[in-house]
Amino acid sequence: QVQLVESGGGLVQAGGSLRLSCAASGRTGSTYTMGWFRQAPGKERDFVAAIGRNGNIYYGDSVKGRFTISRDNDKDTMYLQMDRLRPEDTAVYYCAAGITTYQYYAYRGSYDYWGQGTQVTVSS
Questions:
Q1: Which of 4, 48, 80, 93 has a Cα at 20 to 30 A from 63?
Q2: pLDDT greater than 80 at residue 96
Q3: 60 vs 30, 37, 51, 116, 124, CA distance in Å?
Q4: Hey, which bits of 1-124 come out as E strands?
């Protein structure tokens, strides 16, 4: 079992920045691929970014060049630095962990463990 807890969400103006964190506990952290997904009201949960245990990184098209994913295996923590935020980035952001390979990083079904989510709201 892995427990995931997100933090760092909040309200920010368009063009601003936020940094999300995801702390893992239990059977951790460095064993798993870690990912971020987001879900806006009335929409499906979409892939944002993922980072493998070996450091492979994959981004969703809508966040490339604006978001940066990283992880600190010693602290069992993953981060998402979000810059140049847009109103359309408003969503609940979830972190996830799973055993998977690069070609499946973007699939929700690749992840076995999920956090409770943290709200990010970007005002125009």
A1: 4
A2: yes
A3: 22, 10, 12, 21, 22
A4: 2-7, 10-13, 18-26, 33-39, 45-51, 57-59, 67-72, 77-82, 91-98, 113-114, 118-123
> What is the per-residue pLDDT for 54?
87
| Angstrom distance (rounded) from CA 52 to CA 117 | 20
**CA pair distance 48, 31, nearest whole angstrom:** 20
The span from the CA of 33 to the CA of 90, in Å, is 24
Determine whether 22 is exposed, middle or buried from the number of CB atoms within 10 Å of its CB (0-12, 13-18, 19+): buried
**How high is the pLDDT of residue 31?**
81
